[in-house]
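P.,

For your records, the input lines for the assembly:
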Amino acid sequence: MLEIKHLNKTYEAGRPALKDINVSIGKGQFVVILGPSGAGKTTLLRSINQLITSDSGEIDFEDQNLRLLNKQQLRQKRQKIGMIFQNYNLVERLTVIENVLHGRLGQKNLWQGMFGVFSQTEKQEALRLLQEVDLQGFELKNCSDLSGGQKQRVGIARALMQHPQIILCDEPVASLDPASSVMVLDLLKKLTVEKGITCIVNLHQVDLALDYADQIIGIKAGAIQINEPKSQVDKAMLQALYDKES
Ligand SMILES: Nc1ncnc2c1ncn2[C@@H]1O[C@H](COP(=O)(O)OP(=O)(O)OP(=O)(O)O)[C@@H](O)[C@H]1O
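Structure tokens returned:
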């Protein structure tokens, strides 16, 4: 469902951050991107929905190369690609339900967006999604009053409000304690299994990658070093990925 072909990216005056990346990702897969700090994980993830502009190559989704779309076309495709972030990217002064409804902003015109015009159906869906992420009763709390794990679950509900086919997760558990990390990753895994949503997840924790991934992409110095189903990934491959010498 997502094909990345010959993708390259060099930041201004830097060495290449992505070098000829070729990856194929199937529907409903839980894909973990691993690699040392500075390897290019965030650049790869954010290049998929064009938050970072790559230099060449293809990102094929629904038979279209996302790199070649105009603004309007890209806006439509981005609706199908949700994103969650290490720092949650919520509007802290707004309530939980308002933040979830923001997942629909991409489908609103400027006027509707500015005045927060949401239908009864959308509000009911937001309530249902908050139940799904186990946050019933929190609807009217301000996001600033939530724990990190709760904030990340609001972020997931907001992404689901878009009806995404893919969710990009940029270090979603890096700021969370172990119990909250498991809760968030369990939830993401459930989305892949039960809804067929593809989750592409940058992680620093190899143990969690091995617990949750269907496919592991290992990236080092901007190049793919591992691209395998988890069952094919062994300790030596992971050691080499993080080894400074190899
Ligand atoms: N905006 C930028 N301008 C210039 N160079 C950048 C920029 N963002 C990233 N880089 C460089 O690109 C390379 C890849 O960075 P990236 O953030 O993608 O790595 P990463 O694997 O996500 O790292 P980490 O695990 O530390 O978050 C690094 O050498 C980094 O310094």
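Two observations worth noting. Residues 11, 14, 17, 35, 37-43 surround adenosine-5'-triphosphate (CB under 6 Å). The radius of gyration is 18 Å.

Regards
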